[in-house]
Amino acid sequence: xxxxxxxxxxxxxxxxxxxxxxxxxxxxxxxxxxxxxxxxxxxxxxxxxxxxxxxxxxxxxxxxxxxxxxxxxxxxxxxxxxxxxxxxxxxxxxxxxxxxxxxxxxxxxxxxxxxxxxxxxxxxxxxxxxxxxxxxxxxxxxxxxxxxxxxxxxxxxxxxxxxxxxxxxxxxxxxxxxxxxxxxxxxxxxxxxxxxxxxxxxxxxxxxxxxxxxxxxxxxxxxxxxxxxxxxxxxxxxxxxxxxxxxxxxxxxxxxxxxxxxxxxxxxxxxxxxxxxxxxxxxxxxxxxxxxxxxxxxxxxxxxxxxxxxxxxxxxxxxxxxxxxxxxxxxxxxxxxxxxxxxxxxxxxxxxxxxxxxxxxxxxxxxxxxxxxxxxxxxxxxxxxxxxxxxxxxxxxxxxxxxxxxxxxxxxxxxxxxxxxxxx
Length: 424
Fold this sequence. Notes:
Mean pLDDT is 85; it is low at 417-424. It is flat, with a radius of gyration of 28 Å. 62% of the residues lie in helices and 7% in strands. It is of the alpha/beta class. It folds into three domains: 3-161, no CATH class; 187-269, Aldehyde Oxidoreductase, domain 3 (Alpha-Beta Complex); 275-320 and 335-423. The strands form two sheets. Strands 1-8-4-6-2 form a five-stranded mixed sheet.
């Protein structure tokens, strides 16, 4: 994606006011269209259509929509707070970007603006009797739109902000981000394996924050201009500090202008985002499980649910795409399987060490990944299974339970495949 397009996308995506402005523009357009179509409506039709009642309908719509919008907004804020309190504050960003919530709220606000503009135009005597018929038809359409939005909103509220709904959103975000990254594992460049060349020039970061996006075409262009190669260690999701290294350039020389262009090729923000950072989704799911395992919550069922979701996400890990690089002069560090496994399972192993039911599910999850994606996960899952077992021993689980966990940690296939609770 072009870097300027990315910045616009990041700044404008999921903004509710865009929807409100669009509906407000339609409201203004309806006033103009009503004036243009008025000459084509016979006066007799205008009187029979009850066009004089349009002002009363608009008054009802204006007063009710303002109240409904305020009430709906309070419900949405309550849902955000519920998700932050029961799951994790990091998940609220996904709820705030929920398209159904934003469309419904925008519809309510837009209907309020439409009725308000309609009343202003009526009181200003801008409509003839024929024009009122057109406005009447527009008003009926808006009322139908509001009814549909209300029905959708009622159905949506049945699950909005609940734990399962929040988990579904985080799982979907993590799965989509991981699939996108595995399809393009090096962001269009070449894989960066091993150590950097000794004669590289360090490119410092302009600010402190998280890498959100890397402008690969710009890096390729600069590398061609200086007859060199760029090495990117800090992929999206990495934390960088001001004046710390964000990339390296292998070239004979580097002008200040090119150095500045290299720095500007990295979009850095204050926090991590789900869309371009697969590891963040795994971390958030693991964080939800850790909160559920805390003594204050004591909800191992949620942790077991998270384990099943993590297996579903990581089981789609495939062999990295073998495609010709679009930017051959840019070398990019990949996401490594051991990093994904540690992000997903290490906190659960630590916080659920004293709970045999969680430890059993954890060992089964790791065995499932070892079996389904052996090339990527055999070694990291084996290491983490041993780590989880050592924590269980330190937590003081009985010898019989330790023996069970030791057998599960050494299993070559998924133990107890008939256990339907594996994906609870």
